[in-house]
Amino acid sequence: MPGALPVGEPVPPDGALPAAARASVGARGFGVYVHVPFCLTRCGYCDFNTYTATELGGGVSRDSYTDLVLAELALARRVLDGAVPRVATVFVGGGTPTLLATDDLARIIDGIDAAFGLEPDAEITTEANPESVDADSLRRLRNAGFTRISLGMQSAAAHVLAVLDRHHTPGRAPQAALWAREAGFAHVNLDVIYGTPGETDEDWLHTLEVVTGAGVDHVSAYALIVEEGTRLAARIRRGELPEPDDDVAADRYLLAERVLTEAGLSWYEVSNWAASQEARCRHNLLYWTGGDWWGVGPGAHSHIGGVRWWNVKHPAEYGRRLAAGRSPGQGREILTDTERRTEEVMLRLRLADGLPVTVLDPAGQAAGERAVADGLLEATAWRAGRAVLTLRGRLLADAVVRSLLP
């Protein structure tokens, strides 16, 4: 089941933001995230805020969900009251957004445009499970304004998909990627996972070969994380499956770096590779570089001018609050300067562009010198004033970040 939300101070019933936050909104860009909390089945490894029909209960449905999204967009417009620039990026995630009717997804994009205005070259992304789209639906999504699609492939090995409780056939994801390109999507991403119990070196190499043969211009590759409360965690706890191995995961990452680089895809974030500057996910870059975004939907997180808040998790309660004219926000935190600097180090260091050395305090700069000597940070980049991870540093990114912070 979905994990717990953090604890924070109450969100005002009208969703009002401090004046300082409104005054600085959009200084590093502005985007909108829309969470669609519906799935046909729950994957065994997933703890996202998603619900199947049997878990959802009464009070909300796919048919009524778009009206709730539009209601929160209207709230966002009132709260920000013209203080934001036009929307540069939209990301519709889930869950499985493509379980909504294409007309409803189009209404959501139109609602974002009506609330804030879309930049003429706005990046508009939707996630999709391969089985939830076909050639016709992809053409309709493209006609609705979507420019980018992210397909959840996970693996090309049937037995690995079975462990993950994924319900698409191994060949469906590359076929969907082909349909998306034929439909005119500017950018197509495939999401894959490595380190699943039972996955072999040959399985992972085959997955990478299928990915690179699919003609996509973006790949996201993530090590499997076993989240508490999931079926996968329960199976491992009972001894049915072995724990993922960190050394195996490191070897899988090195193989991904080699195969993807040879295919013309370059890393720009620790877990993401793109064929060009234009193919990089601009919405995720907004997150990683301290931009602002309004997160719409149950459990969605937002960040505006140093204020972060999160919505109530269950769709029914989310709908009740909006119907009563209240913010669906459950809690929020106002980040201190120290917290914002910590987040900048944590996020920007994961990027190929790295982090300005001047962001680090004297102790952090001394730790950076040691990281350079240990081969974790690029020596040439450091001398030029930037902290950039080496390949070995990418394998130990979390440890490097911890060393650079107080």
Notes on the structure:
- The protein is α/β, with parallel strands linked by helices and 406 residues long.
- Helix 8 links the parallel strand 5 and strand 6.
- 41% of the residues lie in helices and 19% in strands.
- The strands form 3 sheets. Strands 7-8-6-5-4-3-2-1-9 form a 9-stranded mixed beta sheet, with helices on both faces.
- The radius of gyration is 21 Å and the shape is globular.
- Helix 5 packs across helix 7.
What's the helix and strand layout?
Layout: H1 19-24, E1 30-36, H2 53-56, H3 62-80, E2 87-94, H4 102-116, E3 118-128, H5 135-143, E4 148-154, H6 158-163, H7 172-183, E5 187-194, H8 201-213, E6 218-223, H9 231-237, H10 246-262, E7 266-269, E8 272-274, H11 282-288, E9 292-296, E10 301-304, E11 307-311, H12 315-323, E12 329-334, H13 337-348, E13 355-356, H14 362-373, H15 379-383, E14 386-387, H16 391-395, H17 397-404
Parallel strand pairs: 1-2, 1-9, 2-3, 3-4, 4-5, 5-6
Antiparallel strand pairs: 6-8, 7-8, 10-11, 11-12, 13-14
Helix pairs in contact: 3-4, 3-12, 5-7, 8-10
What's this entry about, in short?
The chain has helices spanning 19-24, 53-56, 62-80, 102-116, 135-143, 158-163, 172-183, 201-213, 231-237, 246-262, 282-288, 315-323, 337-348, 362-373, 379-383, 391-395, 397-404, and strands at residues 30-36, 87-94, 118-128, 148-154, 187-194, 218-223, 266-269, 272-274, 292-296, 301-304, 307-311, 329-334, 355-356, 386-387. With 406 residues, it is α/β, with parallel strands linked by helices.
